[in-house]
Structure formats: C-alpha cells, structure tokens
Amino acid sequence: MSRSRLAKLSHAQLVELAAEACESSRKVKNKADALIAQVAPLPAWCVDILMSPDLLPQLFSSFGLSDHAAASVCSTWSHAYSRQLRRCRYVDATRVRWLADVPKQPNGLCMLPGGVLAITSSDDDEVAAVNFVAARNDTDPQALAACQASTLAAQHFEWLMDLARTNDGFLACNLRDRSAALYKFALDGSMDELARAPALAEYPQGFSRCAVHEQTQRTFALAVKDGDDRNAVAILDSHLQVVATVEAANSMDDDGPIRDVAVHGDQVIVLTTRDHALGPGLRLLDLDGRYQRTIAAFRFCRPQAVAASHGKVFVVDKYYEEDEEDEEDPIRHVLLVIDIHSGDILQQVQFNLVDEISAVLVDGDEIYIAGFGESEVVVLPFAGSET
C-alpha cells in the first residue's frame, strides 16, 4: 500500500493496522518498540522496576502458561518468566518422552543414586522382580551396572508393588506373602535385604503402596484385606514396627476405597476413590494419622496414583470418553496438578497411556508415570528453569 493511500486512513485505523503488523512480524514489532522508545522513552525509575531481578518475581507471580508472550519482551523477562513457570511446577506437555528398557507390567517406581530408576514388575508368569533402568541421559553407567549386577536384580518375589526411598535404603511393598508384606533393601553392593515386616492380621493381603517421611523415617503403607474390599493406612517406625493403623475404610463397590498414599512435609496425603464412603478426594493427615482436612473432594473420576512435591499434589485420574465403563469407549488419563494449600487444580495434562496406571513419581525436573497394562513409563518434564 502506498504512503498516499495510508495518509487517507484515520489515526485509529493506522494504529489498528500497526498493531496487527507488530503481532504478525517480530521484526516490525522490534522496529516499533525502538521508535516508541525514541519518541516516548520510559523514565529511568520505571526501567529499573521492570528490569529488577528482585522485583520481577513479584510482577510475574500471577503469570501462567497462557502468558508466554511475556517471554518475548527481552532476555531478562524471558528468564524471569521461565523461573516463574518452574516455581509453579507447571508441566510441559510438549516435551513428553518414553523411558527405554521398561520391564513388563511395571508396578512401582523409585529413583536411586546416580539417576537409576528401580521398577518393580511382574511377567506373564506372575514372577515379580526389581528391575533397574537408566532414568535420564546423564544416568551414571557404573551405578546402573552395579544395580543390575546385584543379587536383588536376580531375585524373585510373590507380587511386588510400590517402592519408596529411605535414608539408608529403599522399601518394596509385597502382596500375597503374609511373612513379608514390606521389604527393606540396601542401596549399594548386592542390595541385601535389611529388614522386613509381615502382613497385618486384619489385612493379610499385604501392602500395596507406601511413602516415607524424610525426617522421622516413618513409613505410611496401604494395608489391603483379601478381595481389596477393605484397606487402611498402616504407620510403621524406622524399624518397620507397626505404630498404628488409621483411615480404615470399606469399599462401597468392588474396588479399594483408598488408592494411594503420599507424604509432603509433615502431612500424609491419602487418595480416596469413589468407592470410599466420603467419595474421591485427598484426605490430609498429620504424622500420627490424625485427620486434618480434605482437598479436591469429588474432583476425580477414577484416581489411580498420587505424588507430592514443592507444595503441589500430582494425581493421575482415569476416565472414559463417555464417562461409562464400557469397553467400546476409549480410556483417557490426565495428570492433575493441585495446590496443596488451596486445593485448586492448577493444571490438567492429558497423556497417552491406557488401562491401569500403577505409579507416579516426581523426581527433580520430571514426573514418571508407569502404565501397568502397556508396560511403559512416560516422562513429563516441568516447564521453565531455575536459572
């Protein structure tokens, strides 16, 4: 368009045209910014505020994934926006990866030193074992080789389920073996058995899930009765001696009323299902098992697993396309990111795994989710960066 024709446009029309040009071309936008800075430069105090490393976190505190345009202003704003995303623990669903060498039917996940991921699994003959795979590209090859060469790697069990780290080893939940419902193994060497806990008399099936409180080394394990129609949270001390059994619940249908358990700070998080008398949600307990409050009540359809980190709770939920348990309807899974203080759902991330989800693990910059039916582990990274 010629200058003479542009001159006939009104000021408002020219402004609208210029704005559209800036949105469609970074080069045009940068030129416009330079011209604006020459004609009407920002006062020095304003520039200091907008570029201050101390004040930018406050300015960006309410920014979310939809505010990504802020990152294109300048490198300082780009870094501030990236740090804000990491502080909020937003998940970047565009950089999903799949873990290699995953064993059949993975049940539990636990990160060991050197970036080695321990995975409990069972094959078609229901032979359970602990497997070790590289979790990342920077996994220590010597640490991985040592784990794979340990006597534990060649040992078979009845039906291993969840895993959890302790200060001096890691735990493995076991089902169907009354004499060994919970194992503790060493972290190094041959990974010898350090201790074990038998199944509880009232819950003879064993333990299906577990989590450890870092400071006290208390273990919170999900005890299961035959038929999975009744379960409870068992509290064990650092020597795997039972302290108490809390949150006992009967199933309202044919599934377990409690699905999973996690620990965050000094709070125990109990994930209940729609078969619980009080419905699905996250029940928060203190370290002695006393009930405190419930968050995200009735916000889940068929919750599968839970983990917690940095003030956030991560729940994997399952639903059917038509919200009916029909084999004709496709299954969908979604990862819900929940603020533990407010109970608000901050983000919902859909990922491509079907059938049952057996475990979710938050470690460092990534979230690991095990698909029991597909024998796969999907890895979702957090958005942004700390630097």
Provide structural commentary.
The chain is of the alpha+beta class and 387 residues long. The protein folds into 2 domains: 3-87, no CATH class; 93-381, TolB, C-terminal domain (Neuraminidase). It has helices at residues 3-7, 11-24, 26-39, 44-50, 56-59, 75-87, 141-148; strands spanning 97-98, 106-112, 116-122, 128-134, 160-165, 169-174, 182-186, 193-197, 206-212, 219-224, 230-236, 242-250, 258-264, 267-272, 281-285, 291-295, 302-309, 312-320, 331-339, 345-351, 357-363, 366-371, 376-381. The longest helix has 14 residues, at 11-24. The chain is elongated, with a radius of gyration of 26 Å.
Please write the string of helix (H) and strand (E) elements.
Answer: HHHHHHEEEEHEEEEEEEEEEEEEEEEEEE
Shape: elongated
Spatial strand arrangement across the major sheet: 1-23-22-21
Binned, the helix content reads 10-25%
The class by helix and strand makeup works out as alpha+beta
Q: What fraction of the residues are assigned to beta strands by DSSP?
A: 35-45%
Q: Could you name the CATH topology of the largest domain? A: Neuraminidase
Low-confidence stretches: none
Under the CATH scheme, which class of the largest domain?
Mainly Beta
| Average pLDDT reading | 85
Q: How many strands in all? A: 23
The N- to C-terminal Cα distance equals: 46 Å
